[in-house]
Amino acid sequence: MTDSTTQAALGRQLMARLDEAALHSLPGPGVTRLFCSDEHREVLELIADWMRQAGLTPELDASGNLVGRNARALAGENTLILGSHQDTVAEGGKYDGMLGVALPLQALQALKEDGVELPYGVEVVAFGDEEGTRFQSTLIGSRALAGTFDPASLEARDADGVSLGDALEAFGGKPRDIPQLARKPESVIGFVEVHIEQGPVLEQRDQAVGVVTSLTGIERHRVTVTGKAGHAGTTPMAGRRDALVGAAEMVVEADRLLNATPDFVGVVGKLEVRPNAVNVIPAEVTFTLELRSPDADVRETGSREVLDACRRLAQARGLELEIESTYQADAVACAEWLIEALEGACQACHEPAERLFSGAGHDGLAMHAMTDIGMLFVRCKDGLSHHPDEAITAEDAERATRVLMRFLSDLEAA
What we know:
Layout: H1 4-22, H2 38-53, E1 57-60, E2 66-69, H3 71-74, E3 79-85, H4 99-113, E4 121-127, H5 140-146, H6 164-171, E5 188-196, H7 201-205, E6 209-215, E7 217-226, H8 243-260, E8 265-267, E9 271-274, E10 284-293, H9 296-316, E11 320-329, E12 332-333, H10 336-348, E13 355-358, H11 364-367, E14 373-378, H12 394-410
Parallel strand pairs: 3-4, 3-5, 5-14, 6-13
Antiparallel strand pairs: 1-2, 2-4, 6-12, 6-14, 7-10, 7-11, 8-10, 9-10
Helix pairs in contact: 1-4, 1-12, 2-4, 4-12, 8-9, 10-12
């Protein structure tokens, strides 16, 4: 294993790689890199180079994932899958997703340079679309690998009217071949993802890493409120069918219910007003509603209460309401044997690593349908994520890389 000087260098090199990846972004604050965009294409060239340095052979698959395989994986031996997503939210940070691509490649390269040959196949996947920022349809790549890809998602369209299928075809993917990407469960050892915590727990504990026990359940809805446009100066206030006022009441009521329910969180993250004119009563408002809970019963009950409240408020104001469910993923548990293996690697590296729950969704939500999943969290400053100020330290990057190296070295072929 590498000495402490080399390990510190690994952290610095990892941070430099993450800085370089962040350059592939749309202009503006933070990092904005969307699925099947020019920035996506550019960053894959960089990641492919990292894969080759780690001894992996890179390949763009039919769903837009970049997959790097070692010789044993290429030969069809049982394989451990590692990875995370390359895409970001609008004006996001450098580390959400990309850390889980760069760090395992850094760890594999260090093991290779140390002369360590792993006795099993390894794949590192840079998933194309986890955030759903462009097409509002998440986990495309991980669902493809898990064998749960829904071809109907190819019809989703971005703000410019481009379909996901057409964008993927232009990117070099092969939408028709996506079903063939499904892995055989018996040939997969498991799936492990490294990710920033996106929360404050590790910082509060003063710990660099943590071992995840489970991933939250998530559902998303697109809510359209329809009223009637009119002249803002000549239409009496009484009797107006103002879609924005109705939508505002719904947002406030959703917030009240979320605050009143333990282990239930959510957000109205996107809102569109039509005709969006300064002197016209809004005729239509569309907003997104995302709801999360680690407890399926809490999420289902809370969702029903929120959506029923929207219906009551719409009826009270004479507004029409359409609710479209756009995404759902149930909470999933990490495999106990992977939790224990990651804990063992932490202990061997003298890293305290208590267990914690993930309040965010990850590619593991999809991969769980096909194989056991495990997850290692890395401390992030102020628990901040989905923001340009998202930050980790070089020291924590090094410590997490060292833990993953130990995990990979200790893992036996299944």
